[in-house]
Specification:
- With about 550 residues, the chain is of the alpha/beta class.
- The chain is built from 21 helices and 20 strands.
- Strands 8, 9, 10, 11, 12, 13, 14, 15, 16, 17, 18, 19 and 20 form a 13-stranded mixed sheet that branches.
- The longest helix is centred in the N-terminal third of the chain and has 63 residues.
- About 40% of the residues are buried.
């Protein structure tokens, strides 16, 4: 195909990874977003979504030239919505251009009329000067004739200059140097960067400050490649493009939040098993964003609230799976996860070809691999997607989702992940998400134990615990987690936001993970012992910050 010249403001079809070509517009990237090294690329904002990325030139096609071709090969509902958004944008742009053209014509007519009046005025002055000169010729000598000639020249030029200065220079086209200063680079681009179209919102223009008021969903795809990869991250809040030395690619593919209600819910039927601290918030946000959800919980009474919010009730896990397209599950530990799938009337009994199962429990890699194998053996599709966060973040739809397994299923879950979380990572093959989740919770659990240890040490040495917290909050360790957990301890409020028994379980599994690869985890092991002591003091069902009590008893 012959090379096509593209430039800022052009409508294009962009190819992003394994996604089909999608309509978009070449726009200015934010000022702090550097262009990746290598082949020439443009920054593209895609219609009908909140997606945006650097796209190589060879993966871009002019919109109008390939419109019919793309419409024939893509029939999806979201694709059609994106095309409709482009056409709506074009209609609005055309309307503005016509209005601008009409105003321009009026301005031109006013300018021509003013110039004509100027010419008439100049002609009249010149005619009067000629008559005056004739009279002078009759009444004066040759010397006075020369003086009159000079005077008539001044008389003929001056009124013309005044006529030109009065109207055309003010209403007409400015001098070249003024024109360069006052006309923006592209009025069309300016309208695009500040305007909106149906279901589509452009990011702030480069000259505007990026607002941080709304949390945004960042959706990353990590897949193994042979070449060093480029990491394309989200814009709209803070945007950076980095190059990794690893063999994985991270591509931002969505940017929406439950907070701003910009999610288009999937038309697939969603099932959800397990309405604990995390599951309850997740289901609530799925319902708020318009998903069709069927719920099941071991304690049936917990389903009542969600039935009132519009959810449907499933009598068994098998029934939920058999009646839904995608079923999520979030339970406490490896044993509960296995029982849910393999037990009587369990998930496996409802699995048939095409059914999808997403396990959001925090378990070990061996458990999730076993579950994946039995689901796939029945023709089902499997994705692991444990979540990082707590009850409050679950309620707020601000979880971090770590996924691995069936890549296509991960993409099918896009609207669900956007409803329940702020960030989603795809980490490759089954087991990777389990390992990463255990490592994250190992760090979090060890940090919590260290906080408790520091506060008790401050107390026994006569130091103010509140002052210690104030100091920490002013330093590099400052975080919401630090402040909230310290406040729990200072107030003696250990209402569970993340159960202590579950963080201890995760520490135990993380230590076992280290043992499996002969990697020492002495810090995690020490923290685990403190949590075990706290459990012995009957703190299992309190918040993880209750580990503090292991130090004061």
């Amino acid at each position: 195909m012959a090379a096509v010249s593209l430039r800022l403001g052009d409508l294009v079809w962009g190819k992003l990874g394994r996604y089909p070509p999608w309509p978009g517009k070449i726009v200015n990237p934010p000022k702090d977003l550097k262009k990746p090294r290598g082949k020439k690329c443009f920054f593209v904002k895609f219609f009908g979504t909140e997606d945006h990325a650097w796209i190589k030139v060879e993966q871009l096609k002019p919109y109008h030239l390939h419109k019919e071709e793309m419409i024939k090969i893509n029939k999806g509902k979201r694709f059609q919505q994106a095309v409709d958004a482009v056409e709506e944008f074009l209609r609005k742009t055309k309307g503005k251009d016509q209005a601008s053209s009409h105003n321009s014509n009026e301005e031109k007519n006013r300018r021509n009329s003013s110039e004509e009046r100027g010419k008439q005025s100049a002609g009249e002055e010149k005619r009067k000067a000629s008559l005056s000169e004739g009279k002078l010729k009759k009444g004066t000598g040759e010397g006075k004739k020369r003086v009159s000639s000079v005077s008539s020249e001044r008389g003929s030029k001056s009124p013309l200059k005044r006529a030109q200065d009065q109207s055309p220079r003010k209403r007409g086209r400015p001098p070249k140097d003024e024109k360069d200063l006052t006309i923006p680079e592209s009025s069309t681009v300016k309208r695009v960067m500040t305007g909106t179209v149906a279901g589509f919102k452009w990011p702030p223009s480069v000259s505007e400050p990026v607002k941080d008021s709304d949390p945004h969903f960042h959706h990353f795809l990590l897949s193994q490649t042979e070449k060093p990869a480029v990491c394309y991250q989200a814009i709209t809040k803070k945007l950076k493009v980095c190059e990794e030395e690893t063999g994985s690619t991270s591509i931002q593919a969505a940017d929406s939040t439950a907070v701003n209600g910009s999610i288009t819910p999937t038309d697939k039927k969603i099932g959800f098993l397990g309405l604990g601290l995390m599951g309850s918030g997740i289901v609530s946000n799925l319902l708020k964003m318009g998903h069709t959800v069927t719920v099941w919980n071991r304690t049936a009474e917990k389903c009542d609230l969600f039935i009132q919010e519009g959810a449907r009730l499933g009598r068994t896990p098998a029934e939920v799976v058999s009646t839904c397209d995608i079923t999520f599950a979030c339970v406490s530990d490896p044993k509960a996860a296995k029982d849910l799938v393999l037990g009587p009337s369990g998930v496996l009994q409802g699995i048939r070809p095409g059914k999808c199962y997403v396990d959001m429990s925090t378990v070990d890699a061996d458990t999730v691999t076993e579950l994946a194998q039995v689901i796939v053996s029945r023709g089902g599709r499997f994705l692991e997607a444990p979540v990082s966060g707590n009850q409050q973040l679950s309620n707020d739809g601000m979880l971090v989702i770590l996924a691995a397994g069936d890549r296509g299923l991960y993409e099918d879950c896009s609207s669900c992940f956007q409803a329940m979380g702020k960030t989603s990572f795809f980490l490759g093959e089954v087991g990777n998400a389990a390992k990463m989740m255990l490592i994250v919770n190992m760090v979090q659990g060890s940090f919590m134990a260290t906080i408790a240890e520091g506060l008790t040490l401050a107390q026994v040495t006569g130091q103010s615990q509140q002052t210690l917290l104030d100091i920490l909050n002013q330093g590099q360790l400052a975080s919401i987690f630090l402040d909230q957990k310290c406040q729990n301890i200072l107030q003696g409020n250990f209402k569970p936001d993340f159960y202590l028994k579950y963080i201890q379980k995760d520490l135990r599994l993380a230590i076992a993970l280290g043992d499996s690869v002969n990697h020492p985890t002495p810090m995690a092991a020490a923290a685990n012992e403190v949590y075990k002591r706290a459990k012995a003091l009957d703190q299992s069902d309190n918040d993880m910050s209750a580990v503090y009590r292991a130090y004061i008893h």
